[in-house]
Write a structure and sequence with these properties.
Layout lengths: L1 E8 L2 E8 L7 E5 L2 H7 L4 E4 L14 H6 L23 H12 L5 H5 L1 H13 L4 E4 L2 H9 L10 H14 L3 H5 L10 H18 L5 E8 L5 E5 L1
Parallel strand pairs: 1-4, 4-5
Antiparallel strand pairs: 1-2, 2-3, 6-7
């Protein structure tokens, strides 16, 4: 089965694709549209670094609090998803007020900035019903891979090298993965590393050796599962 780890970036989506669990031959693809990326590359199972399944109130999803338990010292890397009602708002002020009314807390600017991508994933999950698509988070995957959270920022040299080291030990060829990305490509180096560790988690889902946060996922008002897979 062809699986992928997918991360969003400024101009679209970047994916590391793995066939039949062979990390040595994994390759990188990208597209402006998530649906197009998945269809064009015949991906059957994808882990996406973006919230899937949204609360309509009055409480937050159980996802973030559950995942923070394995991110001690790194919990701030995982921020709360918006309520579903906030996705329909036209600006940050309206979205933040709506989130406060529904969930009792305002929306962070960081969350608002990714709301278009959350909406795109929300549509893609329902449009591509034949594809297994699950929410994931790179820092949770790295915690599972390394046995503990990687505390150094992924934007720092120390943090990036540490994460790349774990990816390389799995058998991923980092030179091969980076080869298609020329100087004009707008994704950051850590986007590629994040996609790779999500691809590793995707192979765990395929072999049913993964974990979910929370252990017993619930669904949202549209029937979408709310859980981080790792």
């Amino acid at each position: 089965m062809r699986v992928a780890g997918i991360d969003g970036y400024k101009d679209g989506w970047i994916a590391v694709v793995v066939d039949a669990g062979d990390f040595t031959r994994a390759f990188t693809v990208w597209a402006s549209s998530l649906v197009d990326l998945i269809k064009a590359n015949a991906i059957k199972l994808a882990l996406v670094d973006m919230p899937i399944g949204l609360s309509t109130g009055p409480h937050d999803r159980p996802v973030e609090d559950a995942a923070r338990q394995v991110l001690k010292g790194k919990a701030s890397s995982l921020f709360n998803a918006p309520c579903r009602q906030a996705l329909g708002c036209v600006d940050y002020h309206a979205a933040s007020l709506t989130n406060a009314e529904v969930l009792g807390k305002k929306l962070s600017k960081q969350t608002w900035n990714i709301c278009p991508k959350i909406s795109e994933v929300d549509d893609a999950v329902r449009q591509l019903s034949q594809v297994q698509m699950h929410e994931a988070h790179p820092e949770v995957s790295f915690a599972m891979l390394s046995g503990a959270p990687i505390l150094a920022s992924k934007k720092s040299a120390k943090g990036l090298i540490a994460r790349a080291g774990y990816i390389a030990k799995l058998g991923f060829d980092l030179v091969r993965l980076a080869a298609p990305l020329d100087d004009k490509h707008t994704s950051a180096p850590d986007d590629l590393i994040d996609a790779a560790v999500l691809a590793w988690s995707a192979t765990r889902v395929h072999s049913n050796t993964h974990v979910t946060f929370p252990n017993s996922p619930t669904t949202d008002s549209l029937g979408l599962e709310m859980a981080i897979y790792a």
